[in-house]
Amino acid sequence: MLDALLSLLPLVGTIILIVVLLLLAVAYLTLVERKVIAAMQLRVGPNVVGWFGLLQPFADGLKLLHKETIIPTRANPLIFLVAPLITFGLSLSAWAVIPFSPGWVIANINVGVLYLFAISSLGVYGIIIAGWASNSKYAFLGALRSAAQMVSYEVSIGLVIIAVLLSAGSMNLTSIVESQKGLWYVIPHLPMAVIFIISALAETNRAPFDLPEAEAELVSGYNVEYSSMTFALFFLGEYANMILMSTMGTILFLGGWLPPLDMAPFTLIPGVVWFFLKVSFLLFIFLWVRATFPRYRYDQLMHLGWKVFLPFSLAWVMITASVVVMLGVIKA
């Protein structure tokens, strides 16, 4: 019994390390976002708390921690408090199958893509429960909007991933990365990579698709009744999902930890560094888009998802399947 527990220590240590690093990444992503948008708008951004404002995320966290958690009188207290835990917990659990470098993965399962599908699908429940448990019409309408938006763009993301799976011939994320040696999938699947990035913006409720928030209409959407750390958990979950989507884009289209060219000096840089740089580039696109584009109307959002992305993605999957069968990558 003791030997079994001792054998689990390395795994537990790895999980704790990833969770801590992810929380730090989420905290400093909020600072980077404010700095990047400030630079694009010719402002300074946070620069008072700490050296160049580097302690601003900790100040924000302490502020939220010290605020009072207010539960609306007519809300369901138990479900009201469980909803943010579901959202935040799912945003962390998805990282169990993410390979950062060869061998750097908690669970290198053969159906890693299906696992990510399942986790992303369950994420809708936290938002729906939050809107319903708040017993507020604004929160409930925001939850319905968010659920419809996430479900709609999960279809597009699913078809995008299917196109990549057909090319790689595997659902293992490590195998998908290794199949891109010599040619990243962003080149043959460039239209699908663009659809993936846009769908990821909608999936994470980010601008210009932040319709569930809609301050002029719904005040703040599904989390309007939340305060203190319950709000912080939704906030952390949103930014963790941004990092997760950028990581998925890196694995599916940018070759994961693979260098741009299989030659020196590119091969001298560790793979995990290339992985970090690619994820950072995709995160910058998230921030760039927020600072640049105005918010869509809800009918425009649904039109783009169902009448543009869905048929195009479906056609691309059929073309990809035909090509890989003709090339003999997979058998009909």
Beta-strand fraction estimate: under 5%
Written as H for each helix and E for each strand, in order along the chain, the element string is HHHHHHHHHHH
How helical, in percent, are the residues? 55-70%
Mean pLDDT: 88
* Distance between the first and last residues' Cα: 49 Å
Largest sheet: none
| Backbone CA Rg | 21 Å
Q: Say how many strands there are.
A: 0
The global form is globular
Q: How would you classify the helix and strand content by structural class?
A: mainly alpha
Q: What multimeric state do the chains show?
A: single chain
Q: In terms of per-residue confidence, which ranges show pLDDT below 50 for 5 or more consecutive residues?
A: none
Number of helical stretches of at least 4 residues = 11
Record the SSE blueprint.
Layout (H helix, E strand, L loop, with lengths): L1 H39 L15 H11 L10 H17 L18 H22 L3 H32 L4 H6 L11 H14 L11 H4 L9 H26 L17 H22 L5 H29 L6
Helix pairs in contact: 1-2, 1-9, 1-10, 2-9, 3-4, 3-9, 4-5, 5-7, 5-11, 7-9, 7-11, 9-10
How would you describe this structure to a colleague?
The chain starts with a helix and ends in a 6-residue tail after the last helix. Helix 1 packs across helix 2. The protein is globular, with a radius of gyration of 21 Å. It is mostly helical and 332 residues long. It is built from eleven helices and no strands. Helix content is 67%, strand content 0%.
